Amino acid sequence: MTNSSTHQPGWVLAVDSGGSGLRVALAPVPSAGDAAPAAGADRADTAVSRQPVRTGPGGIDAGHLMEQLVPMANALLGEAGGDGKDIRAVAVGAAGMATLGDDLREHLPGALAEAFGVRRLALAADAVTAYAGALGQRPGAVVAAGTGMIALGTEGRKWRRADGWGHLLGDCGGGAWIGRAGLDAALRDLDGRRGGSALLRARAEEFFDGPVTELPGKLYPRTDRPAVLASFVPEVARCAADDPVAAGILQAAALHIAEAAAAVCPPETECEVALTGGLFGIGDALLVPLKEELSVQLPRARAVSAEGNPLDGAVVLATALALDALALPRDGRLLHVPEGSD
Amino acid sequence: MTNSSTHQPGWVLAVDSGGSGLRVALAPVPSAGDAAPAAGADRADTAVSRQPVRTGPGGIDAGHLMEQLVPMANALLGEAGGDGKDIRAVAVGAAGMATLGDDLREHLPGALAEAFGVRRLALAADAVTAYAGALGQRPGAVVAAGTGMIALGTEGRKWRRADGWGHLLGDCGGGAWIGRAGLDAALRDLDGRRGGSALLRARAEEFFDGPVTELPGKLYPRTDRPAVLASFVPEVARCAADDPVAAGILQAAALHIAEAAAAVCPPETECEVALTGGLFGIGDALLVPLKEELSVQLPRARAVSAEGNPLDGAVVLATALALDALALPRDGRLLHVPEGSD
């Protein structure tokens, strides 16, 4: 917990890379006497690129990430009155890091050393930055839900992960799952099959601008099918008060989300469970049944608000690394800290 | 029911176009005194092309279909000692006819008149040829299930259709649905979520040759994802005797299939329900719960064997057209008979 340069604490660089682009934050390293880094720590400034980092044959393209990161970081340093050599640590969180992170793991350590002289680096799955953003370095569990759904928990020694397997193998209870169930109910109404909802059918016809018989032609040719399905979630949520089928879909989603949370909570102790991600923005239609399900499946859970977002989480990781205070479990795929980083 | 050329009854041409290629049958038109055409009627001969008909911006490409069909038909006629001018009617069944059949509906009547001088033509969705193959022209219901699942029924005046909406919007209980549920159970076992099956996980690791954590990387980059999911169905069926999770998946599939059958059965009378398609080849693991579900949801149903396959169904349609005896409901999308065809 000592810092070799307390008189010039320097900066950390935090990166959040995902399908909607690249977000970068520059934050000051707290002096050694300050409190341990927490989520939602003050940031000097952030920069955003709307261009998602390319994915190539080796996975997420390290060169393309550096091309965007270096000028963004230099601009932030310039505004803050800092210099590249003042960067003490970098944390990069990326969607797909576990499965598509080989190129990043191979090339980022050298590229960042060359660009900024920085050797302390953490490469984190987006679920890990979501965790650190929500709970800091405390034990507990985080459910991150948007189009997909993943739960991640730790008691401090190792990560437990549940779901996050994508829209055809899991992501049960996430946005694409809920939207798909809503459209299934709309088509069941058309067919006269059990489980149909006339209200969801009417909302689908309005939302997708045409009869539901046209849905296959509108959905299947797209490359962003999970996002198209998830776009229907707010309609399902709006119907839930009046429509038992829509309410049942959200009840079933709550069941699946609670199952994932229960699988990752550290055993035996009371466990903080933070819910984070855009899906929970739909509000009580999902949150009320989810809290009920959590109380049934995981009575020792205590639902808490997320302190910050995944970019905040990357700041937590980088700051901890700069202060020799990284307490979250290292893991080759979920939270990779290359040798020589600390 | 009269035939203008009883002394030279001629031939009908039947076509079944799908994802695995083009199948063509040439069948003799029965004399007017013969029994009405039935499914499984004798065929002179069949020809097969393994090249699926291309789908272009206008849907299934009529020109590409004709390029393959004309030489295949001429070869069959040559073997049978017939001539192009002896063809009395043509029926074309195609997967996607309802949504992708515009080019066929626009260009096939003229192209077939030019190639063979034939004016009697039926363009049928593959579900209609499956129906005619299974039940001939009798009222009833047919469930066609392979990778997908669709039910079609009629009392003789109009078609009722249920499901067949594809792997993201429906096809509930079909092959992709069952395979996906099996892999979900495998991943639930890995995660420690409720609903997991260690046996399905072990089978998935053997079948897909590696840990289930690699499944997303093996599935999502493919363009034939529904077929990949459905390829796991035999493993789910094999596990059902020993594994309650696998048995529960097939029970749930049976429920969905029975829901679709119940939605399309002609009302109020006893109803023949024929099960057709590759999915039912997995046997009792699915058939036993399905017959139970049918007896609960649709007690007036009588499960029968399909008399023939979709190519047989196209022969039924073409023969009925040749004899002025088409009794199945005409429908712009499901069973299109262009004006001037009869």
UniProtKB/TrEMBL annotation, chains A, B:
<dbReference type="InterPro" id="IPR052519">
    <property type="entry name" value="Euk-type_GlcNAc_Kinase"/>
</dbReference>
<feature type="region of interest" description="Disordered">
    <location>
        <begin position="33"/>
        <end position="54"/>
    </location>
</feature>
<feature type="compositionally biased region" description="Low complexity">
    <location>
        <begin position="33"/>
        <end position="49"/>
    </location>
</feature>
<dbReference type="InterPro" id="IPR002731">
    <property type="entry name" value="ATPase_BadF"/>
</dbReference>
<dbReference type="Pfam" id="PF01869">
    <property type="entry name" value="BcrAD_BadFG"/>
</dbReference>
<feature type="domain" description="ATPase BadF/BadG/BcrA/BcrD type">
    <location>
        <begin position="70"/>
        <end position="318"/>
    </location>
</feature>
<protein>
    <submittedName>
        <fullName>ATPase</fullName>
    </submittedName>
</protein>
<dbReference type="InterPro" id="IPR043129">
    <property type="entry name" value="ATPase_NBD"/>
</dbReference>
